Amino acid sequence: MSAAFLLLAMCVTLVTVGPAAAAGPVGDCTATEGAVVAVDFGPFGGKVERGCDTTPTTGYELLHDAGFTTEGTQHDGPAFICRIGLGSGTQYPTTEQEACVLTPPATAYWSYWIASPGTNTWTYSQYGAMSRKLKDGDVDAWVFGGTDSGGSTGKPAFTPDDVRAGGSTGTPGPGGTPTAPAGEVDLAAAAAWVSGVLEDGERVVDEGAGTPDYLLTTEAAYALVAADPEHADIAKVTAFLAAHTDDYAYPSGKDGAPDPAAAARLALLAEATDADPEDFGGHDLTASLTGSVCAAGPEAGSPAPGCTAKGDFRNAGYADGQALAVLALVRAGATPPADAVARLARLQCEDGGITSILIRPGEYCDGDPATTGLAALALHEAGGQDAAVTRAVAYLKKAQREDGAFPGYTGSTTGSVHATGFAAQALRALGAPAYADAAVSWLSREQLDGGGFGFEEDATGPALYPTGPAVLAGAGTDLARLTTQRPGPTDPPATEPPTSRPPTTGPPTTEPTRPAGEGPDLVKGVAYLTSAANLRQGQYYPVGPQSPRADFGLTIDGAYALAATGLDDDKLRGIVDFLDKGGKDGDGKTLLDWTGTGTKYALGGSMGKAALLAEAVGRDPRAFGGQDLIAGLNAAVCEKATPAPDRSCAAKGAYTYAPSVFSQALAVMAQVRAGEEKAAREPIAYLESLQHDSGAWPSLIPATGDSDVDSTAIAVMALDLVSGEKAEKAVAKALAWLADQQLSDGGFPGAAGNSVNSAALAIQGLSLDEERYASRITRAQKFLAGQQNSDGGFNVAKEGRRESNLRASAQAVGGATGISFGTLERSLDGTTPQPTPSPSTPQIVTPDDSAGGSGGIVDTDGGGGGALASTGVRTGALAGMAALLVAAGWRVVVIARRRAAVGDGT
Questions:
Q1: How many CB atoms lie within 10 A of CB 105?
Q2: CA separation for the pair 852, 843 (Å, rounded)
Q3: Alpha carbon of 644 to those of 414, 648, 649: distances in Å?
């Protein structure tokens, strides 16, 4: 399950790793071979120590192979690094300085920083050390202290080049021109397919939905204009969108502020079809966009809603909305506000790519080809940004594969139709026709028999979202030049850009409410979750591929998913029986160790999560895993806030050691379902009090002021169980806020970007009023389908690696059904007990496929550096920072504004 946080922990013994591996001499690594890690022991009177690994795998292994030792927290084991040492030396902080039982305070933890090959700027890692996959030339750093929620403070005092082996080689330049056979997109077939998708030749309606999908309707219009400028449906679609401008672009009402991305899309369509963007659907779209630029961001003290920084188009949310608005104004003959153009340019990363998220200075920046292509085109049209455009073109050239395709995001090896379409448009417009031709050649080979395109290479089903950009690229045009008046390709500039399934048992107890549509393949998803490589001996998910220790939170997440689908009740029973019998894992830890029931470290969220599973499958939560979880929850309700340094109770009505809204909501649901409404009265009141005026909930307790999709979704599931007008109004207001957070591709923003976890939780929340939000649920379903991989698993986020992640997959599979955790039920009657592995049964683990310093920097392979040991706690959840728990351990993510934590530490 998502959106939980690193919980304060308890266990009996500390877990330390074995002796450090012999340090790889830093001289064995170079700037392009091997990876280097540096640990700053300055706060403990030491120096910056560094080491290298010539065959890097993960950040966790790099620490050990470089000669460091680590120790985890008592509650979470070695995956949650709490101390680091060098060789046989002392580990820091010492036991006198930090017990490593609970999450360390915000000002005293190890932060984890990373730098890619050729870059000389640190970014706060969005992956825990066990989850970060290294490549040659990477540099890692560990710094003790604290950082803010955006990762803009607390950076290492040294640069990556200071510790990089052999010094910096500079940013690699673009590669050679890709080699690809000639190819052309069949525009006639594409137009026929797009026209066939339209209802009455005028609108797109998602399958199973009763309302039009306006965004995809604009995509259909763009594709038709590019493929066949004289197509009869163009006028129909344009007229339909003009008649529904209020519905699409003015969600707050005709006289309210516009949705800038929607208004920009309509303006671009008007400009392409010779309509008037200053009089479209009864609105002056140009004036609306110009008037919606933020005069200031949060630094002003009282920023306008929807403004993350000066120059944002209010509520644009993502870079594509910002770029579309700039482009629409230029095409309309208006001068886009300088602040808006500058804001778009500031989204460029060090490598020239442009990030899809409206980040602030110092926040993690990771560009992608689609956003880079669209933004570069907008910056070029706006003028005055020659240097940024040139760097963006160099980034695109370097990102292109030899066959002409572009991946969807950093680290992906899979060709993306959407990304390739936008990159090709930009490259042709910006004077790189050979690269654009190679991209179109690849697109021509990906066009399906019916004329449409799928999301990725080798896709078998077409979709409008990727088809639009692909058709524009194939027609040799782009959003800056698209028009019915000038059919056919446009001439590129003569020079380079200026340098300026069947269920195993009976029918489900709770029928999935998933609406009909193009949702994920739940059969494949369940197969991924229950595969022997993932589900250890059919009983639990481990904290890491080679660890004997159970990740109890993830294990319960998987059980929730199986209960929601009803597709493998026997495997579900195997998990439930394991937990009900105490859940003793290969490391000797039990469910009681994880929940702390009856101890002074009783974890409210963990008890609630376990109790909720028992209730969902018909087991007794008062006698589950050898514990009375309900009595434990009742005893865990705080009577008042505890003063520092005691962090057990955040407030009256909170649960002990439950530092997140997610934890609070899980515990409330468990108490209410157990018939303990009276005992839950104060926790319910406290949960209600945390809701913002906007309808959203924050991520952390005490509240930090952020607004979190994941936390809002889980809170409405809890309050939906509560009777009373106050709770009903809170739920309705929250659902409206959730719906407004949906992105143009159907996803929802989360900690890792366009998040799978957040989309799945949003589906569960919005399904509480399925009739009202049917179209948004369907769009989110399609988003999840696009993030499912061939093995059945799901990515963490659209922007991340194309790699299946267990926690994201568990949330996606369960969330896709639309069933609330508050009402989830699955009978295990008729199921077969699973064989109990003997202690001697071998555990077959399939691993996840996975020159001297200056300024006091000392190498671990010798020389006078001293034998200081450093603590390596990778914790972004500390005092206001959330963490994402992943299969390989605790994946830590700093909560950036608007980005909710998507992990679950409960």
A1: 14
A2: 43
A3: 50, 9, 10
Task: Please tell me the distance from the alpha carbon of residue 346 to that of residue 92, in angstroms, as a whole number.
Answer: 38
CB 713 within 8 A of CB 765: yes
Burial (0-12, 13-18, 19+ Cβ within 10 Å), 133: middle
With residue 160 as reference, give the H or E element that holds it.
helix 160-163
* Separation CA 176–CA 193 (nearest Å): 35
Buried b (16+ CB within 10 A) or exposed e, 751-790: bbbbbbbbbbbbbbbbbbbeeebbbbbbbbbbbbbbbbbe
Q: Which of 608, 518, 564 is nearest to 764 (CA)?
A: 564
- Identify the residue whose tokens are 């120096």: 47
Q: Do residues 726 and 734 make contact, with C-beta atoms less than 8 angstroms apart?
A: no
Q: Which two tokens stand for residue 695?
A: 């309808």
Residue 600's H or E segment, with its range, is none
Check pLDDT > 50 for residue 853.
Answer: no
Q: Which two tokens stand for residue 786?
A: 């696009």
* Whether the model pTM is above 0.85: no
Q: What span, in angstroms and rounded, lies between the C-alpha atoms of 82 and 93?
A: 8
Higher pLDDT pick, 406 / 110: 406
d(CA 486, CA 310): 37
The DSSP annotation for 443-476 comes to: HHHH--TTS---SBTT--S--HHHHHHHHHHHTT
Helices and strands, counts by H and E, the chain: 28, 12
Q: What is the pLDDT of residue 285?
A: 96
Secondary structure of residue 492 in the 3-state scheme: coil
In our burial notation (b when 16+ CB lie closer than 10 A, e otherwise), range 73-99 reads bbbbbbbbbbbbbbbebbbbbeeeebe
The position carrying tokens 């109004």 is: 729
Local structure of 37: helix, strand or coil: strand
pLDDT, tens digit (0-9, with 9 covering 90-100), for 515-564: 444 689 999 999 999 999 999 999 999 987 778 889 999 999 999 999 99
Whole-angstrom distance, CA of residue 745 vs CA of residue 762 = 14
Q: Write out pLDDT tens, residues 587-606.
A: 899 999 999 999 888 999 99
38 band by pLDDT with thresholds 50, 70 and 90: very high
Euclidean distance between CA atoms 328 and 277, whole angstroms: 9
Higher confidence at residue 338 or residue 704?
A: 338
Bridge partners of residue 511, in order along the sequence: none
